[in-house]
């Protein structure tokens, strides 16, 4: 594999029903004093990376949860799940990102639309009818560096900015569905980018991906450390936060910087080669998004959140550090 890919996931949290809410503000007011004892999560994406992590988070926090069996695009099956589980929150970690990468979406457009657009909107609409707030794990791979946000400038795209990257069908549909979801005041959209976790055996982990590539491009990007931000997203659900959020750690990190950390903490003998965007374009079907997202909004809500480089060390590389053999 030569190409560099990113993948993202959708997760939805729907909060406890309230009587005939007409706005997200009313829902927030009604749920402000809710206790964790009333939590009951319904999760879609049992076999997915994010779905698996969410289940473990529930277990560690003592939160009851059930994996849904309905398909997102099948409204009746979703309603059946809701009626059976009577959830306080609904998570959707089931989405099409493509195998082995997003190039798959270029030749499977209908399948991509069915799950990522039709399915997402159907779930949002069912939750809206039931007075439930949704937190939607979307993607930040809908932007690319431009004259107003030059590479290396530190000027990141903000939540209200209009997506400017349509190089891949995957990203194009993500931008479309995000715009449509803005009409649902009960939805909270979280823009994930290049997700990373402490599980370096997972092939979807961005660190694991680039460590296995023969060549990588070296561009600073915003990224999401799941070990730190997924627990934050659970808290966002409890706070009934809505609207669009850049769901990345503050700052950017380049591919070479990530691999230098990998060499320092994991494998001192590790080596890699770089190639240019032009060279990369010859071995991939669709262009990839490279950008910096402004995480000020999320940092203001959660001031304890670490910068991307600090988070990488604390949550990913330190826990995986190889013990040195002393002579």
UniProtKB/TrEMBL annotation:
One of its GO terms (molecular function) is oxidoreductase activity. GO terms for cellular component: methionine adenosyltransferase complex. It holds the Pfam family RmlD_sub_bind. SUPFAM superfamilies: NAD(P)-binding Rossmann-fold domains. Gene3D superfamilies: NAD(P)-binding Rossmann-like Domain (3.40.50.720). Residues 41-213 form the RmlD-like substrate binding domain. Pathway: Carbohydrate biosynthesis. CDD domains: dTDP_HR_like_SDR_e. It comes from the Eukaryota. InterPro entries: dTDP_dehydrorham_reduct, NAD(P)-bd_dom_sf, RmlD-like-bd. GO terms for biological process: S-adenosylmethionine biosynthetic process; UDP-rhamnose biosynthetic process. Keywords: Isomerase, Oxidoreductase. This is RmlD-like substrate binding domain-containing protein. It comes from Thlaspi arvense.
């Amino acid at each position: 594999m030569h190409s560099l890919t990113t993948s993202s996931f959708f997760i939805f949290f729907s909060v406890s029903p309230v009587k005939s809410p007409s706005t997200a503000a009313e829902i927030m007011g009604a749920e402000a004093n809710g206790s964790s004892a009333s939590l009951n999560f319904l999760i879609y994406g049992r076999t997915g990376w994010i779905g698996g992590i969410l289940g473990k988070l529930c277990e560690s926090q003592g939160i009851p949860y059930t994996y849904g069996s309905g398909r997102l695009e099948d409204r009746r099956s979703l309603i059946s799940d809701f009626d059976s589980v009577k959830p306080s929150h609904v998570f959707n970690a089931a989405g099409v990102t493509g195998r082995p990468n997003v190039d798959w979406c270029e030749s499977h457009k209908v399948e991509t639309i069915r799950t990522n657009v039709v399915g997402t909107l159907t779930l949002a609409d069912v939750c809206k009818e039931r007075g439930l707030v949704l937190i939607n794990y979307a993607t930040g791979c809908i932007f690319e560096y431009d004259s107003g946000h030059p590479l290396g400038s530190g000027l990141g795209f903000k939540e209200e900015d209009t997506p400017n990257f349509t190089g891949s069908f995957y990203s194009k549909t993500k931008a479309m569905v995000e715009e449509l979801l803005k009409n649902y005041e009960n939805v909270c959209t979280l823009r994930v980018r290049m997700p990373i976790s402490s599980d370096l055996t997972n092939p979807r982990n961005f660190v694991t991906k680039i460590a296995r590539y023969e060549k990588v491009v070296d561009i600073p990007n915003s990224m999401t450390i799941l070990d730190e931000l997924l627990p934050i997203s659970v808290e966002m659900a409890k706070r009934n936060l809505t609207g669009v959020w850049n769901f990345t750690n503050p700052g950017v990190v380049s591919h070479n910087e990530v691999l230098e950390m990998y060499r320092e903490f994991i494998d001192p003998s590790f080596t890699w080669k770089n190639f240019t965007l032009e060279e990369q374009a010859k071995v991939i079907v669709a262009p990839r998004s490279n950008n910096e997202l402004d995480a000020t909004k999320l940092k203001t809500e959660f001031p304890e959140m670490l910068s991307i480089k600090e988070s990488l060390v604390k949550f990913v590389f330190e826990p995986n550090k190889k013990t040195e053999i002393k002579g």
